[in-house]
Structure formats: C-alpha cells, structure tokens
Specification:
The chain has two domains: 101 residues, Jelly Rolls, CATH 2.60.120.10; 84 residues, Jelly Rolls (Sandwich), CATH 2.60.120. It has 220 residues and is mainly beta. A hairpin with a 3-residue loop joins strand 11 and strand 12. Helix content is 8%, strand content 47%. The protein starts with a helix and ends with a strand.
Length: 220
C-alpha cells in the first residue's frame, strides 16, 4: 500500500514539473530536426489540434515559414496566453541574440499547425553584399534573403553561384528542380523542402498548377 501511495504522490508531483520543463527548441518533441549542416538547422514543426508544446527556448537567429492556416495560442513563460492566426506562406525572422524567448504553443484549431523553424548557424558570404535574385523579395536582413515565387515567375533560367538555399512549397502539388551539375531533377511536394547547396547551378521547371507558391530562403 505504501508503494502505491508513493507512486501516486510521485505522479502528482512529476506531471506539473514535466509540463513546465523547458528545453532548447531543437529538443522539443514536436520540433523535428530534419536537416542540419554548418549553415542551417531545419526544424519541421507539427502540432495536431488540441496539442501543446513543452516550454522551449529560442536563442539562435531563426527564419519561420508557416505552411498552414491555423489558429494558435502562445504563452511566453510567466505571461498570459495570447491568440493569433498563422497564415500559410507568411515568413518571419527573429535574431533572438539579445532577447532569448521561452514559450510554448498550443493548436486551438481543428486543423494541424505546420511550420518550419530554420535556425541560421553560420554565414556564407560573411557579410559581403549580394544582389537579390529576380524574384519578389519577402524579407531581407544581414543574414538572409527570402523570396516568393509564383507559377508565372518560374521561367527555367539557370540560377548559379549563390549561397545555401532552402526551397519550400507552400501551395501547389509539386515543383521540379533540375540540377545542371548532376543532370537530375528533384521534386518538392506541398509542405516539403529542398536544400540546395552553395554554388549550385539549377533551375525550376514551371508546374501545371497555377496556384503554386514557393518560398526560397538564401543564406547570405
């Protein structure tokens, strides 16, 4: 009987401690580390309806891209919950260098919440000026350039001598990327990503789907 009481007491104490534990974002269970090299760490984040992340720490410059239209609530540690609507294709960036964030997120919608958190680990050009690609610039700062590409802006022109690029398909069935060096064509599916190594020569093949929305992140 004493063992049962001890077990119940342990559970009652442990559950609140686990719920309030905080970890680095890359260790939070819903943030899956799907790719990492010297330049970037790509965390693929999926939160099902009604689920809540652990408190987690953001302390590395990060680029975020929402891949679904989802209502969420977030709570900065020690503060109240706040509601927001996260819309697919909307990018954002936070350096977190002087303002480490500790928070948790809950999906209060009826659909999954899918977002990528791309941590910027090192520069490529090391501060040198680069000319933007001929696409719509969504975001630019000292570390990254982000572009938005629609079906009408894909013209199969070869892109070369650029920094590391992560291509993500927000809308549309798929986009094809042809590598001039290997002569291979790779596929990006909706909600998926493709890492394109520095100094590659490649081009996008226009898809049939006119709703295509592709976002490129280039590391400076």
């Amino acid at each position: 009987m004493n063992k049962i009481r001890f077990l119940i007491l342990y559970i009652l104490i442990a559950i609140p401690l686990i719920a309030n534990a905080q970890v680095q974002v890359r260790l939070e269970p819903r943030h899956k580390n799907v790719f990492e090299n010297k330049y970037v760490r790509i965390l693929d984040v999926n939160i099902v309806p009604g689920d809540t992340t652990m408190f987690h720490i953001h302390s590395t410059p990060s680029f975020f891209l929402r891949l679904t239209n989802t209502k969420v609530e977030a709570q900065i540690k020690g503060q109240d919950w706040t509601k927001s609507q996260r819309d697919a294709g909307v990018p954002s960036y936070d350096s977190f260098l002087n303002d480490t964030l500790i928070h948790r997120v809950t999906n209060c919608d009826t659909v999954p919440f899918h977002v990528t958190d791309i941590e910027i680990l090192a520069p490529y050009q090391n501060g040198r000026q680069i000319k933007p690609l001929p696409f719509k610039v969504l975001l630019e700062n000292e570390k990254v350039l982000a572009y938005g590409i629609s079906n009408s802006s894909i013209d199969q022109k070869v892109i070369s001598k650029r920094g590391p690029i992560i291509a993500q398909l927000v809308d549309g069935d798929k986009v094809l990327v042809h590598d001039e060096e290997t002569k291979k064509t790779r596929v990006i599916i909706k909600g998926g990503y493709l890492y394109i190594k520095p100094e590659s020569s490649f081009y996008f093949i226009p898809p049939v789907d006119e709703k295509t929305k592709l976002v490129l992140l280039e590391i400076k």
